[in-house]
Write a structure and sequence with these properties.
The protein is of the alpha+beta class. It contains 8 helices and 10 strands. Strands 5-4-3-8-6-7 form a 6-stranded mixed beta sheet, sandwiched between helices. The protein starts with 23 loop residues before the first helix and ends in a 28-residue tail after the last strand.
């Protein structure tokens, strides 16, 4: 799902639709056009997308033999993925190199808190669920508050129930499915959110969370200047394989990691015979 622009500098998104259903030649031509237009392409996608889509993405990258395509699948729920993609679109308007911009995805993931209010956890496999929670999920009217990222949490929704949230100022984005709950407003207040914004539910959310009876939420940094400061404060290095500038320990375009160097062997002490 492509979220609407955050500000006038936010770059538009390109949604790659039905990759596994359209002819390979058509999707290949689409990627070629994107590379010719933009130079580099960063594909952000959820692990809830069909495996056929993932295979098609890797096939396209392999056929193009291009190190200008970065495939990024962060460990976030679908709404968190949409938020992260928009943050990268915000940063795309800044003076960041393609490698640094793509690497920024891993960094910004740490500042995203994603969860949901669920009407059932019977099919939830993304967060540890105890036997009591499983049993209570069959009771009519029971709701659960869940945080999947950055640390798994699960509570039964009640006026006094709380979830640990960010220790910095954020906005909260809410996507409502087939569930009604006022508890989310109290959670936003407890987390010190600057405000609530609403958006449609991503298509993969019901698959990711195991139910359509849900309200998905994500707290995130919205200010471009803060995002830019976070990214530029990290030391940049050049990939030893493709030479592109990156942050972190892995190149997102060629997937190379820093080489392991064996430490030099200690020099033997020189023995001298006293004169």
């Amino acid at each position: 799902m492509a979220l609407p622009i955050q500000d006038e500098r936010t770059m538009p998104a390109v949604v790659l639709r039905d990759l596994d259903q359209r002819p390979l030649e058509q999707t290949l031509a689409e990627f070629v056009a994107l590379i010719e237009q933009h130079g580099h392409v960063i594909v952000v996608y959820s692990d809830a997308v069909p495996e056929a889509v993932v295979r098609r993405l890797h096939t396209l990258r392999s056929l193009l033999e291009s190190d200008r395509i970065a495939l990024f699948r962060p460990d976030l729920p679908p709404l968190g993925i949409a938020v992260l993609a928009r943050q990268l679109r915000q940063l795309a308007s800044c003076d960041l190199s393609p490698g640094v911009l793509a690497s920024a995805g891993r960094l910004l993931t740490h500042y995203i808190h994603s969860g949901a209010v669920l009407g059932s956890v019977a099919k939830l496999d993304r967060v540890p669920v105890g036997l009591k929670a499983h049993a209570k999920s069959w009771m009519p009217g029971t709701q659960f508050g869940v945080v999947a990222h950055p640390e798994p949490q699960l509570v039964r929704v009640a006026p006094e129930a709380v979830l640990n949230g960010p220790e910095f100022g954020t906005w909260m984005l809410v996507a409502k499915g087939q569930l009604q709950s006022d508890w989310i407003g109290g959670l936003a207040k407890a987390w010190g959110a600057h405000g609530l914004r609403e958006t449609p539910l991503p298509a993969e959310s019901s698959v990711w969370w195991g139910t359509g009876r849900m309200i998905e939420f994500t707290s995130y940094l919205a200010d471009l200047s803060v995002l830019y400061q976070l990214v530029t404060s990290v030391r940049q290095t050049s990939c030893h394989w493709c030479g592109i500038d990156v942050i972190g320990d892995r190149c997102v375009f060629c997937s190379a990691t820093p080489p392991d160097y064996d430490p030099p062997a200690p020099r033997a002490l020189e023995q001298r015979t006293p004169a």
